[in-house]
């Protein structure tokens, strides 16, 4: 069983990992993906510019990755339901 001192070491290591700066570049176009992106982790937010390489704490990069993954899943589901609806309509 870990004692409080060991738990503090794990927490410090976790904090170091999640606060480590990582380089990212968010896609930018002149349409839907032109504005900078606001991201928040545990109530602390930051704005990440699009179209340029920036270094941000890993915790924000992970939150952005998770958000993009969720967007893709949602779009895939919408596309599937639209196809199903069109196929059902064609059968009528």
How would you portray this structure in words?
- This protein has 92 residues and is an alpha+beta fold.
- It has one domain.
- Helix content is 54%, strand content 20%.
- The chain has 2 helices and 4 strands; from the N terminus they run H-E-E-E-E-H.
- A hairpin with a 2-residue loop joins strand 2 and strand 3.
- The chain is elongated and about 70 Å long.
- The N and C termini lie far apart (65 Å).
Unreliable runs, pLDDT <50, ≥5 residues? Answer: none
Oligomer: single chain
**Spatial order of strands in the largest sheet:** 1-4
Helical residues, percent: 40-55%
SSE-based structural type = alpha+beta
Share in β-strands: 15-25%
- Whole-number radius of gyration? 20 Å
- N→C terminal distance: 65 Å
SSE sequence, one letter per element? HEEEEH
Counting H and I runs of at least 4 residues, what is the number of helices? 2
Question: Mean of residue pLDDT?
Answer: 92
Tally the structural domains: 1
Brief summary:
With 92 residues, this protein is an alpha+beta fold. The chain is built from two helices and four strands.
Layout of secondary structure:
Blueprint: H1 4-19, E1 21-24, E2 37-41, E3 44-48, E4 54-57, H2 58-91
Antiparallel strand pairs: 1-4, 2-3
Write a concise keyword list for the protein shown above.
two-stranded antiparallel sheet, alpha+beta, 92 residues, 4 strands, single chain, two-stranded antiparallel ribbon, elongated
């Amino acid at each position: 069983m870990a004692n409080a001192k060991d738990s503090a070491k794990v927490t410090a290591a976790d904090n170091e990992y999640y606060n480590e700066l990582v380089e990212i570049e968010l896609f930018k176009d002149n349409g839907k993906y032109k504005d900078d992106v606001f991201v928040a982790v545990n109530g602390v937010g930051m704005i990440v510019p699009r179209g340029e390489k920036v270094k941000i704490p890993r915790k924000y990069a992970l939150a952005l990755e998770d958000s993009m993954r969720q967007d893709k899943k949602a779009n895939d589901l919408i596309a599937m339901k639209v196809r199903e609806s069109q196929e059902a309509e064609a059968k009528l």
